[in-house]
Write a structure and sequence with these properties.
Helices cover about 40% and strands about 25% of the residues. The chain has about 300 residues and is an alpha/beta fold. The longest helix is centred in the first third of the chain and has 25 residues.
């Protein structure tokens, strides 16, 4: 086993293919493939299942990837420690977030400081975003789920609140605030399970003993909006995500605490790596763009 073989395996697993890994490494695809093949032959194992131009990591390969992710993260951390965050001129940061609205201002701030840094942004619900982080599929998670895992480092970014919204022609569109009891017997449109929006709202309803007529579950925020526009029920969304859409009217819940905090989270072992540290520095910068405060 050589460092170059491990690096080749790591890149192919991370990029889910030899072509993407070759581009990321600046190597030829045959060279990268030869390194991986040599590693497999040396130990008589299969690390990938080849599927056309893409590959699938085997169960053994997944175990190895969890090790190489830690190994190369430590290498990056050592390089960042020696070079210093101010020397960041290039690099790629992988972010997973449960809302693009909450993370974009931070990425814009980071790009101002380090113009050579590139980003990839993956959107999912809070449960998915946390899994991406724990499985080394992303460097940073931005989500509304609080964590207490000692392996993770988290900092609060901001607070938002859940609000309701209805079509402009809805009977509630003449009001600005409603009691939670208004939802009894009404149809509600919510995100899928694993979403903090869904979790917080269902807990609030259950605590108040309020039973809606039905819950219409959809997979994305965009689908929630379209379902509400089509008349499937009252929608629930973070206030900062409602935006200006002439189709909808927003409603605050007058008698329920629907404030939710948003957190930036990384694996503690990555906290001092240059790109991750730069992200958290931007998150803690008071001059970063303000987002709507919870009420």
């Amino acid at each position: 086993m050589t460092p170059s073989q491990l690096r080749a395996f790591h890149l192919v697993a991370r990029e889910s293919g030899f072509s993407g890994a070759a581009r990321a490494a600046g190597l030829s695809q045959p060279s990268l493939s030869a390194q991986v093949k040599a590693l497999e032959v040396a130990y008589g194992v299969r690390l990938f299942e080849r599927q056309g131009r893409r590959v699938r990591v085997t169960e053994l390969g997944q175990g190895l990837y969890s090790i190489t992710a830690r190994l190369f993260a430590a290498e990056d951390e050592a390089r960042a420690l020696l070079g210093g965050a101010l020397n960041l001129t290039r690099g790629h940061l992988r972010i997973a977030a449960d809302s693009a609205t909450h993370v974009m201002p931070l990425l814009a701030r980071l790009r101002e400081r380090h113009g050579g840094v590139t980003f990839s942004l993956r959107i999912g619900n809070s449960a998915e975003v946390l899994r991406f982080l724990l499985d080394y599929e992303t460097d940073i998670a931005v989500m509304a789920r609080q964590v207490s895992d000692p392996l993770l480092h988290a900092t609060e970014l901001r607070r938002d609140r859940l609000v309701l919204f209805v079509p402009r022609g809805h009977a509630l569109a003449r009001r600005r605030r409603v009691p939670l009891s208004t939802l009894a017997g009404n149809d509600i449109v919510l995100r899928e399970r694993g979403s903090i929006t869904r979790e917080v709202f269902e807990q609030t309803l259950a605590g108040a003993g309020i039973q809606p007529r039905s819950l219409f579950e959809v997979q994305t925020r965009e689908a929630v909006r379209e379902a509400v526009a089509a008349g499937f029920g009252i929608g629930v969304v973070f206030e900062s995500e409602l935006g200006e859409d002439p189709r909808f009217h927003g409603l605050q819940v007058a008698d329920a605490a629907l404030a939710v905090a948003e957190y930036a989270v990384c694996r503690r072992e990555h906290r001092r790596s240059g790109l991750v540290r730069a992200f958290f520095d931007a998150a803690g910068d008071q001059s970063a763009p303000d987002l709507p405060a919870a009420g």
